[in-house]
Amino acid sequence: MFALIGDADFDQQWLYNRLRQEASQKAKGNVGAIVTFTGLVRDNNADGNILGIELEHYPGMTEQALTNLVQEAITRFSLTSAGAVHRVGRLYNDEQIVWVGTAAPHRAAAFEGANFLMDMLKQSVPLWKKEFTRDNSRWVEVKASDDKAALAWLREK
Amino acid sequence: MFALIGDADFDQQWLYNRLRQEASQKAKGNVGAIVTFTGLVRDNNADGNILGIELEHYPGMTEQALTNLVQEAITRFSLTSAGAVHRVGRLYNDEQIVWVGTAAPHRAAAFEGANFLMDMLKQSVPLWKKEFTRDNSRWVEVKASDDKAALAWLREK
Amino acid sequence: MNVTVKTFAQLREITQEGCFTLTLPESAVTMGDVITLLKSRSDKWSQALGASAGSENGSVLMARNQQLCDIQTHVQPGDELAFFPPVTGG
Amino acid sequence: MNVTVKTFAQLREITQEGCFTLTLPESAVTMGDVITLLKSRSDKWSQALGASAGSENGSVLMARNQQLCDIQTHVQPGDELAFFPPVTGG
């Protein structure tokens, strides 16, 4: 498993290869499904004048919380392997911001694991987004739908 | 959109880049989610002596059916773009066999679209798997669970 | 009239005819008629298409000009007709 | 006893204190006690932690040694305590 936090853009092929290789080492011949989710920065302001977002994090805790989350997903969905990457710092619209990947014998577990990682990441990993325009910046508010998605997993437990 | 059938192994980075680029051209600043699913050949025989599978297809119809399916997914889930790749011919255990990718403004549509593509592909695209060992080969039987998954989407319509 | 008939996977192996031209009598107008004709072609075809071919739960699928169809589908001269088992890709 | 206090995002901006050492009286044993103490530190802190901080639906989250915790959590000398708003990553 892996959980990475950093400023630099990430490489799809490198992440996919790492996930596939780890899974293959653990269960050769029994990895049928690999799912990846990549989040890009959206210009989600109706005015269309947002240039991007600035991501603040809690160094140390962010890495630990993301590691714990990936391990929880592996246990909960019996994944063969999983990984997550989140960027911090200043990101412009359309840039890659987050990646999660899951490997499992079957498709359902890989898809559920990836969804779980994204839902819980929005709840339990200390990262904060601030949208910026040319002249201003504003903290992004928590979405009620994000809280609900995370709560649903907690209830299912 | 794209729908590809071929013998050769496929390249994750190339497919991801193509999907992202197509999506960005169509809706710059409004592509928040990219999901990919990759299927690998599993050694799903309890004896563990299956070496791989031989994939037969219906040249012409396979490409058309896969194209229709990708277009249906785009319409149904309002995807920004989508693509699918399926290999044919002789594939050994752990090789990549199928890839689907979806791009959408939000995560839910991208995940649902990818799941739909896989469920329906197992139902409507003329491809047939034959497992081979060192000495023998045997056609893979249809799974009842695959039929059920496809039917569920048809009912939801 | 002439049509092209194709088979795939198990059906190709059983019939040992993957692709051939079939001459239909004027009375053969639907896929159902074609199936009846093919079943009388040889024991292998009779076995391949079985009792259930074309029925609701039939284990044989059929396509006309590369589109899935059923026993009611009408056939035209020059059509490409195909018969194959349920698909197992993915 | 001494602890380290960290703040992030809005809380860092409001308090204008991102990281500092806080000396606690012996009577301060829980995160709740620390919050009471911080609120009396300045108007900015009072505003940052608000009325709801630490309550069930509080909009301030807290961590002890980089693990999420709540107002009942006990505090030890040398701890790293952090206060921040609900997270918005992903």
Can you describe this structure?
In chain A, helix 2 (61-76) runs antiparallel to helix 3 (107-124). Helix content of chain A is 39%, strand content 31%. Chain A starts with a strand and ends with a helix. The radius of gyration of chain A is 16 Å and the shape is globular. In chain A, 47% of the residues are buried. The longest helix of chain A has 18 residues, at 107-124. Chain A is α+β, with helices and mostly antiparallel strands and 157 residues long. Chain C has a single domain (2-84), classed as Ubiquitin-like (UB roll) (Roll). The longest helix of chain C has 9 residues, at 31-39. Helix content of chain C is 26%, strand content 26%. Chains in contact: A-B, A-D, B-C. Chains A and B meet through helix 1, strand 2 and helix 3 of A and helix 1, strand 2 and helix 3 of B.
List keywords for this structure.
A: 157 residues, Aldehyde Oxidoreductase, domain 3, four-stranded mixed beta sheet, globular, C: 90 residues, Ubiquitin-like (UB roll), five-stranded mixed beta sheet, 3 helices, 5 strands
Quick summary:
The complex is a heterotetramer, with two copies of chain A (157 residues) and two copies of chain C (90 residues). By secondary structure, chain A is α+β, with helices and mostly antiparallel strands.
Number of domains of chain A: 1
Structural class, from helix and strand content of chain C?
A: alpha+beta
Q: What distance separates the N and C termini of chain C?
A: 37 Å
SS-based class of chain A: alpha+beta
Rg result of chain A: 16 Å
CATH topology of chain A: Aldehyde Oxidoreductase, domain 3
| Portion of residues within helices of chain C | 25-40%
What is the makeup of the main sheet of chain A? 4 strands, mixed
Instruction: Please identify which CATH superfamily of chain C we are dealing with.
Output: Beta-grasp domain
Query: Helix share of residues of chain A?
Result: 25-40%
Q: Write down the CATH class of chain A.
A: Alpha Beta
Tell me which oligomeric state these chains represent.
heterotetramer
Helix and strand element order of chain C: EHEHHEEE
Low-confidence stretches of chain C: none
CATH architecture of chain A: Alpha-Beta Complex
Strand proportion of chain C, as a percent range, falls in: 25-35%
Percent of residues in beta strands of chain A? 25-35%
Question: Major sheet of chain C: order of its strands?
Answer: 2-1-5-3-4
Number of DSSP-assigned strands of chain A: 8
Uncertain runs of chain A are: none
Spatial ordering of strands, largest sheet of chain A: 1-4-6-2
